[in-house]
Amino acid sequence: MNEKNSPSVPVEELPLSDSVREAMAITLRGCDELLIESEFAQKLARSEKNGKPLRIKLGLDPTAPDLHLGHTVVLNKMRQLQDLGHVVIFLIGDFTSMIGDPSGRNITRPPLTREQVKENAMTYFSQASLVLDPEKTEIRYNSEWSDGLGAGGMIQLASQYTLARIMERDDFAKRFKNGYPISVHELLYPLMQGYDSVALKSDLELGGTDQKFNLLVGRELQRQYGQEPQCILTMPLLEGLDGVEKMSKSKGNVVVPNKPIEQFGADAVRYWAASARLGLDATYDEGQMKIGRRLAIKLLNATKFALAIGREDENHHVGEGATASWDPKDVTEPLDRAAMAKMAKVVYDATESLNNYEHSKALETIEDFFWQFCDDYIELVKNRAYGTAESTGVEPSPQAVKSARTALGLGLDAFTRLLAPYLPYATEEVWSWMHAGEGSVHHAPWPKPITYATAAFKASPELLTQAGAALTALRGIKSKAKVSMKTPILSVTLAVADDVRGSIEAALGDIAEAGRVTGPIAFTAPAAAEGEDEAADVTVAESELGEPPAKKPKK
């Protein structure tokens, strides 16, 4: 439909207040398209002026017993608009389900019986109430007005629209061109959905991108019936299990929300959802859920390890939660300060991304450093944190021990708060361990870069990266020799550039302990690199391995 040729209802143009602009930003966040933005802004402005909330409509046909994950995309947007104070109408299409929505289909959908529709509709609102506030939701059935139309009313409704306009719809046009049959009752569906908007006097209708034509029909019919035309808001589609078609109950490629939650956990499903880019169609991806589950487990295990140091019993158990606090001034060692320097940057960058509503970008920033923190930093400092020297024989000072424990605590405390929007349950568990009796992580203040910048004391985050590269190089010696990682390295010469050597030397004690280097570590200039090692900061020039530890006899 050509909006440019549509007559508009003259209304007083109101200035837009800050609250209206904020409401527009919330409305547009993550949507595919809002038609027409200027009209909706004026609707919001008039609503603010006269105190009358807007009527916002979402219609769903109960063509199968359950809602699915694809529905949550548009339901979450409804909840945002509901929280802004507007009336949301959850419309169950018990009448239109008997027609069957032809949107996006190349074959006729079999109509359902009233009995089938009634049975399917029983679960809809209870499931939608998991997202919407049921106390503030108006639930309606389009049979209320559709049943009463009768033959005369249907003829009058059909007279408001032309066959030519109906055939502009992409799926109808393609089916007609390719010789696929189109049943007459299918042509009625857009009209009936549009008439719902007339009956409800809706100000805004929501739907997936595939619903745009039907939503525009509602806008046109409202104009024909003397109403102010509704605006329309389309949301990205969630692809189904086939990775091709939209998630649809009738196509059999849906995911009922409880199934992945039971299989992977609520945190994992939330992680997958948060990984999707705003405004883009999202693919159902169990691989992403598995990554989210692994992330949650790693956070739990890393925190359990850090808190246990100095507090565990002989069986390595920690009986009670801690009331933990860490003073940034206690971070004194170069490697610890480097980790805090990186944390300061991560907190700053993640906060900036979230303030710009780029939640997936923020998650990527947080997650990248979390794995570096666990795989490099914790591995490098764990012996020092324990206060032991298994390889070098040089026991760390009490100050160095405290520095490691403080940096571990500060880091994991920050990660818990940073990841709370993405992994709400795992982070709540971790927070209760760290801050027993101090309430929920979701009420805790958001971390600020200054805390970690203070602990860093002008250190460079590159030191951590380069120390991690050195540890990787040392472990690579053992991997190539196919021996246990517990095998001692009697001596080693590392090839490093001059600008990297200083960082390596600053963290040499931790590197030697983590790599189990019992003898001297020498340095040489890197040779002309070839192949995959060309970009490596640290490579091994020479090394001598000791005897692998004896294997424990099998019981």
Describe this structure in words.
Helices cover 50% and strands 10% of the residues. With 555 residues, it is of the alpha/beta class. The chain folds into 3 domains: 26-256, 3-Layer(aba) Sandwich (Rossmann fold), CATH 3.40.50.620; 288-459, Isoleucyl-tRNA Synthetase, Domain 1 (Orthogonal Bundle), CATH 1.10.730; 466-545. It has a 6-stranded mixed sheet, sandwiched between helices. A 3-stranded mixed sheet has the order 10-9-11. Helix 15 (334-355) packs parallel to helix 17 (398-419). It starts with 17 loop residues before the first helix and ends in a 10-residue tail after the last strand. Helix 3 (69-83) links the parallel strand 2 and strand 3. The protein has helices at 18-28, 37-50, 69-83, 114-121, 124-128, 143-146, 150-158, 163-166, 170-177, 184-200, 212-224, 258-264, 266-275, 286-308, 334-355, 359-386, 398-419, 424-434, 449-456, 462-481, 498-506, 508-515, and strands at 33-35, 55-60, 87-92, 137-141, 204-208, 231-235, 238-239, 282-283, 489-496, 521-524, 538-545. It is built from 22 helices and 11 strands.
- Helical fraction: 40-55%
Which residues sit in consecutive blocks of at least 5 with pLDDT less than 50?
1-9
3D shape: elongated
**How far from one another are the termini?**
77 Å
Domain unit count? 3
Number of strands: 11
Numbering strands along the chain, what is their spatial order in the largest sheet? Answer: 1-6-5-2-3-4
The whole-angstrom Rg is 31 Å
CATH superfamily of the largest domain: HUPs
Nearest-integer average pLDDT: 83
β-strand amount: 5-15%
